């Protein structure tokens, strides 16, 4: 309580100390109208946001919009609308802008964009600065799945780690777990989905306004470990502006492969100087069907509800929100370990508070503060007794507290803009039903991200310094953690402190004639997680007996990426090469031996090794004839680790390299669609090659090809925009197995699925 009281008083001091004096104009208003460039008719439901600030607005039925409390400075205003080219323009704000006219051109290319002013690369986002990819509108509904990773799985380089229907997490270029940071409105989710394949992500994408993906220097603001990238689900739960009218959306969907259904509702209302945001969503499904039969115990029941209130004034805004996420789902049976499956009961309560103060300084633009508290509980029910009492095998409790402080500055010398911030996090972790001792983690990091433009060259650089302290007061139950791992000495308990500097640099050069090229370099640091250090005990839902190693060194990597892009009115294409060199790659290694306490489970020991992950991505979207769009992409990742001399001698292998486990195979994704102003329909194909580069005790998977079909239709009726989306996945009911599925040896992927989504915006 003393810590929380100190934080509250600090925020109060910052708010009152930074407020402008009466009569001093420190912020401005941007207002205007969005029009169809050809017909000059108003364009309603256009989504506008300012890249550098957390400012969003939605155009009314007459196309008009308004964005308040904008500090002076130079900004990028981005406008999205279904059926139109995304438009970005640079605005110099030093007075109220009352008559901004935005003319949108119709398009059928989903990634087509127009820059009105400025030489920056096309970036967009309402909560992340400089997202390298965002999904919204038609693309979001076409690919909307029951989980976040399923929604993103059609993007080049994206895969999903699964263990049934509900527990799925994104994998980017073979990197998953702790190396991919998942946020909701810029704040970490506070769950343990990165820890194990049976733990699901506590975010429902059905009520998202958009989904952003960021890499490079911008990712350093959210952690030193995001070498794979940052994924942000934008819900705008705490509004930064007061809407001029009541607005929102309502959706219903259903699917056949699991007799599933879902619904979502969002509402944003003006209350004087206050803005109210409500959202509620629910999903349920029975067991999934495959061409070979039913995958038992793959049901799920999920709800995600929240409320947010913000007070918006010329000096900025202060807001708070509360939400609760509940999910019950099943883990499929394993005849060797849990023949009846495992049932999961999960809940998370989250409280957030944010503020943004427009500063009076000509150098500093705004001061942002964030406070977040999450209380997460996860029970794994392994059966029932004869009397009907549930048997809880393992229970996880995690309380996470975050406090972040950030300020942005205007132009300074050759620097066009930048941000400086402090991020802190405290985790209190407890596991019942295993030998894992209770543990705590405290992390504090400071970062600096800067940008500069030199004619056609755009540069970004970032650095971050972190201190992480992980501790436990107890020893494990069965034996000393890590005692059986090679040369690791027997340790009753061990507290660890890690310090490191992470850096990132990115460059983009406009070559002209539609060509641009660039690259990223990231030197990342990741302290071992509490699970990697202190885990000890059976984890039936993931088919493993986990053994931590308190002597682990931090994970460090040097990631390089180069790309070339070409963008014209009828074609967008990009080729990327990447190379991630890990001097210490942390993962749970399957030892292949049965545990001495639980002979039905194999020992998985956390260890570190040198590793390489490298590969390529290619994507293209083009318009061969009017209203016909062709898209295709390919991705290929190779992952391998170094083999020690002792391991070579023990295994009989002479090669000093071995494949890493759970690396996706070569994949090709292609689609063709017909699009006009209201109707879209088409087909897509997903091809995967055989994956025979397998890790220790990992089974190979055969290649496959799966054909899908989709259609969407829009109806505008006054203040309402109706959208209908139909998807038919795996049309021919093919039997195939995904290499990143933990149950691929037991069951194939789901069969033919017909899903229908209706959504209305008002």
What does this structure look like?
This protein is mostly beta strands. It has a single domain (2-12, 123-761), classed as TonB-dependent receptor, beta-barrel domain (Maltoporin, Chain A), CATH 2.40.170. Helix content is 5%, strand content 56%. The strands form six sheets. The protein has a 22-stranded antiparallel beta barrel. Strands 3-2-5-6-8 form a five-stranded mixed beta sheet, with no helix packed on it. The radius of gyration is 25 Å and the shape is globular. It starts with a helix and ends with a strand. The model is unreliable at 1-25, 112-131 and 477-491 (pLDDT under 50).
Features:
disordered N terminus; globular; Maltoporin, Chain A; five-stranded mixed beta sheet; 762 residues
SSE layout and pairings?
Layout: H1 2-18, E1 27-36, E2 47-50, E3 55-58, E4 64-71, E5 73-80, E6 86-93, E7 97-104, E8 113-115, E9 133-136, H2 137-142, H3 148-152, E10 158-162, E11 168-172, E12 180-184, E13 187-188, E14 210-214, E15 229-234, E16 247-255, E17 260-271, E18 274-285, E19 288-290, E20 293-295, E21 300-313, E22 316-331, E23 342-358, E24 364-384, E25 390-409, E26 415-432, E27 439-454, E28 457-471, E29 496-512, E30 515-526, H4 530-534, E31 536-539, E32 544-547, E33 555-568, E34 571-594, E35 602-625, E36 628-642, H5 645-651, E37 657-659, E38 667-675, E39 679-688, E40 704-717, E41 720-729, E42 753-761
Parallel strand pairs: 1-7, 6-8, 12-15, 32-35
Antiparallel strand pairs: 1-4, 2-3, 2-5, 5-6, 9-14, 10-11, 12-13, 14-15, 16-17, 16-42, 17-18, 18-21, 19-20, 21-22, 22-23, 23-24, 24-25, 25-26, 26-27, 27-28, 28-29, 29-30, 30-33, 31-32, 33-34, 34-35, 35-36, 36-37, 36-38, 38-39, 39-40, 40-41, 41-42
